[in-house]
Amino acid sequence: MKRLSLFVVLILSLGLLAGCNSEKDTVIVGSKDFTEQYILGNMLTLLIESNTKLAVTYKSDLSSDVLFAATRTGAVDLYVEYTGTVYGSYFRYSDVKNPQEVFEIVERELMERYSLRALCPLGFNNTYALAVRADTAATYDLNSISDLAKVSSDLVFGGFVEFLNRYDGVPNLKLTYDMVFSDEVVVETQTRYQDLINDKIQVLEVYATDGMLSEYNLVVLEDDKTFFPAYEGIIIIRDDAVQKHPELLEVICVLTNLLDDAVMRDLNYRVDISGESPKSVAEDFLRTNGLIK
What we know:
The structure is a single chain. By secondary structure, this protein is of the alpha/beta class. The chain has two domains: about 25-125 and about 230-290, Periplasmic binding protein-like II (D-Maltodextrin-Binding Protein, domain 2); about 130-220, D-Maltodextrin-Binding Protein, domain 2, CATH 3.40.190.120. Helix content is about 45%, strand content about 15%. The protein contains 15 helices and ten strands. Strands 7-6-8-5-9 form a five-stranded mixed sheet. Strands 3-10-4 form a three-stranded antiparallel sheet. Helix 2 (about 35-50) links the parallel strand 1 (about 25-30) and strand 2 (about 55-60). The protein is globular, with a radius of gyration of 19 Å.
């Protein structure tokens, strides 16, 4: 109860609850606070605006916990989530399941617990991973996280504050691989890769669809003990939003299986490296695929 109360306070402080559902024909799209989420949040917004008579309010830059709480309380109607985040972080399951089993558990329990629908798998698996520079991998002969565990006490780890504390993040990762780092530091979205390149950190939390991985020729370490579950992109939507606006299902689910890992990595690259805006990248993708005019 205390944790839920904290989420409500955070949501209130962001102004999400004030009048968010006062307009019958308005839906609230949410997104988290990194490039991929900005792109996907804009995709959902543009699809709804272009193909329905509904107005859309877009709320971005939310942490995972706050966004999930906002959706449960009705402050957000829909957003793109990851099956592994629900399974491991929100539901705190730790046993390894195949991707289809994870999805089925997530789908069933979101509806049973919170009247939330998990639907429209987008086609990519943005699982967590650990990356190092090529020279670091060569120096320490690193190919897997088990290799890293042998020398981790010599290295500084960098990750987002959530990953440093959440159930499917660093605490249980260290237990699984029996490792400890010389230090663990919080990194920022815009500077985390530069921190790695400039040797402020030697190990970085990354997403499998990050466009920056190719740009910096980083070595992604094999998760040889399969600690990380599948993090397949899905859309979570409130059931009452579907009841009010059933047309939403057809409109948003055109994205089903349209975004594989390579496509998502390319879209992220266009924002992070080429400097395009998330909205323009989202709009171009939808137009190219004939989903908006």
